[in-house]
């Protein structure tokens, strides 16, 4: 059972997350031959204040 975790900064829409889940599932199905119903995807929405880029929170950088 393939399991993928995706870390993203918060702010993505449910439609964007749905599209990512569908595409990553398809990629793992193709790469490993695993049945689609056995693929698991977990999306972690990380607040911008907790995502560091170049030593600064992404929120402070206007991301």
Task: Throw out a few tags for this protein.
two-stranded parallel ribbon, two-stranded antiparallel ribbon, single chain
Provide a descriptive summary of the structure in words.
The protein has 63 residues and is of the alpha+beta class. It has one domain: Macrophage Migration Inhibitory Factor. It has one helix spanning 14-32; strands spanning 3-9, 40-46, 52-53, 56-57. Strands 1-2 form a two-stranded parallel ribbon. It has a two-stranded antiparallel ribbon with strand order 3-4. α1 links the parallel β1 (3-9) and β2 (40-46). The N and C termini lie far apart (34 Å). The model has no long low-confidence stretch (mean pLDDT 96).
The CATH first-level class comes to Alpha Beta
**Count of β-strands:** 4
- List SSEs in N-to-C order: EHEEE
The helix-and-strand class reads alpha+beta
So, CATH architecture? Answer: 2-Layer Sandwich
Under CATH, the homologous superfamily reads: Macrophage Migration Inhibitory Factor
What is the number of helical segments per DSSP (H or I, 4+ residues)? 1
> Do you know the CATH topology?
Macrophage Migration Inhibitory Factor
Low-confidence stretches: none
- State the domain count: 1
Tell me the strand percentage band.
Answer: 25-35%
Whole-number mean pLDDT: 96
